[in-house]
Specification:
By secondary structure, the protein is α/β, with parallel strands linked by helices. The chain is built from 7 helices and 17 strands. Strands 1, 2, 3, 4, 5, 6 and 17 form a 7-stranded mixed sheet that branches. The protein has a 5-stranded parallel sheet with strand order 8-15-9-10-11. The relative contact order is 0.18. Bound molecules: NADP nicotinamide-adenine-dinucleotide phosphate. NADP nicotinamide-adenine-dinucleotide phosphate binds next to α5. The site of NADP nicotinamide-adenine-dinucleotide phosphate has 20 residues, from α5.
């Protein structure tokens, strides 16, 4: 049987790495499992401007490298490229199945984050990686001096559209309403940016092209009229859904899969906590993920004390 850990954390983004720092400092034997490389969602962000302590801003990659380095100074073992496929609870221990084997623990913190929602329109699956991307920071450089579209009107679409504007010739922002959801500072910057053009009340209905994206067909949500926008790239930012399928019925979720927690970030299974973007909450930021990670860790520490005494 596999070794029994005190705590397992699933996901090495801001919440998971913070939980790791707190647990290790508290002397709790902990293992962090990560499906790819440590860092989580912020590594896809060009510039983080709203994380306190960095008045000049910092690249998402550099910030997360610092989080990981910080966790390692307290000896946190991070197993990268260990994707979790299932978690079960036998009443006493959690059994975690991964691509790399099985692990057991007394307590667990889920910080698995989210994945981008697809639009689900014709051409999307066929042209992913051929002009369609869900990560401007990763793929933007392939579109130097070309015309691209970003889909969505939230913080991600506008922030990434602004970062694309440094590279490409033109950014069409295609949004299904006539008002952006994005925060004011981003809206103001986007409206001032001469490379950004807003196509309001437009819903993408098809992405076309032979081997590469050549155009996107949009429908006017008011008139129903169809139009064609010629672009070489389409960056999709229509929201994120939580990665929680591997938890089976250990947690309650909302309609988008976000884990419903109590005020201590506990779930319906004792000893299972959720932190960061993966849980149902109002504000998803690095700073709120950090707060979650700390809170979940302290509550897990209390839980372990309780069951061990
Ligand atoms: P979001 O806030 O859920 O916005 C998704 C956008 O896509 C909305 O404008 C939505 O339109 C649109 N949309 C949804 N489904 C669509 C569809 N099928 N077709 C076309 N458009 C569709 O997602 P997000 O922008 O990725 O942000 C996620 C979270 O991360 C938010 O809490 C956000 O504040 C946070 N975030 C923060 C920062 C920052 O602070 N710098 C940066 C990035 C993300 P409607 O507006 O009409 O619903």
């Amino acid at each position: 049987m596999s070794e029994l850990h005190d705590a397992i954390i699933i996901g090495a983004g801001p919440a998971g790495l913070t939980a790791g720092i707190y647990l290790m400092r508290a002397g709790i034997e902990t293992l962090l499992l990560e499906k790819a490389l440590a860092g989580g969602m912020p590594v896809n962000t060009d510039r983080v401007e709203n994380y306190p302590g960095f008045p000049e801003g910092i690249s998402g990659r550099e910030l997360m490298d610092r989080f990981a380095a910080h966790a390692k100074t307290f000896g946190l073992p991070i197993k990268e490229f260990s994707e979790v496929s299932g978690v079960v609870h036998d009443g006493k221990t959690f059994i975690v199945t991964t691509t790399e084997g099985e692990y057991r623990s007394l307590g667990i913190i889920i910080t698995a984050g989210t994945e981008p929602v697809k639009m689900g329109i014709p051409g999307e699956d066929r042209l992913v990686g051929r002009g369609i991307s869900y990560c401007a920071t990763c793929d933007g450089m392939f579109f130097r001096n070309m015309d691209v579209a970003v889909i969505g009107g939230g913080d991600s679409a506008i922030e990434e559209g602004l970062s694309l504007a440094h590279i490409v010739r033109k950014v069409y922002v295609i949004h299904r309403r006539d008002a952006l959801r994005a925060q004011k500072i981003l809206r103001d910057r986007a409206f001032r940016n001469e490379k950004m053009e807003f196509l309001w009340n437009k819903r993408p209905v098809e992405i076309g092209g032979t081997d590469q994206v050549e155009y996107i067909t949009v429908e006017d949500t008011k008139t129903g009229e169809h139009g064609r926008v010629d672009v070489s790239g389409v960056f999709v930012y229509v929201g994120y859904r939580a990665k929680t399928a591997f938890l089976g019925d250990l947690v309650d979720r909302d309609a988008s899969g976000f884990i419903i927690t109590d005020e201590n970030l506990g779930s319906k299974t004792k000893g299972l906590y959720a932190a960061g973007d993966v849980r149902k909450k109002m504000l998803r930021q690095i700073s709120t993920a950090v707060g979650d990670g700390a809170l979940a860790a302290v509550n897990l520490e209390r839980y372990l004390l309780e069951i061990k005494s």
